[in-house]
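Let us practice reading a record.
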Amino acid sequence: MYTHLALLRGINVSGHNMMKMEVLKSALETIGFQNVRTYIQSGNVFVNSDEENASKVGFVIKQEIFKTFGHEVPVVVVNQNDLKNCLVHNPFLKDKDLDTKKLYVAFLSNTLRNESINDLKISQFKPDEAAIDGNKIYIKYAIGAGKTRLDQKYIEKKLNLTATIRNWNTVTQLLKIYEGQ
């Protein structure tokens, strides 16, 4: 049995793509996922499955969301190691006087090469900073996530993939949930 974390993009935000987590949980259990758990209303869903392939799990979840709620919702599936690596590889954690409220992680549908940072043209977003780590981009906003153009839509457009962003507190809480199973 494999545990997967499905990160749903753009649900329950400003009245768009509304879905109750209890209904989602029930729908996913009905199609065979076990031990379905959600964390907050923004679309963090743990599922247990015999399926090892994260992409296949994400596809099935995406289909069920459309069937149940009628929403086209991008889904990025990660595992416990992806979250652990955030704590190990995030270069901004070494910064003196770090404000973790300005730290975010963009989880990506594909693994990137380190050179892909050039495709983002990050220098135009100074003083915001970003670093690529495989299927993640660590972001440190100078002011905050609401005051930047370096957002999920920009990342998706420049890199031609699906991205969903979580704040640092959510990332650390999701890892705690994984470790507490």
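A brief commentary: Helices lie at 21-30, 54-69, 80-89, 117-120, 152-159, 168-179.
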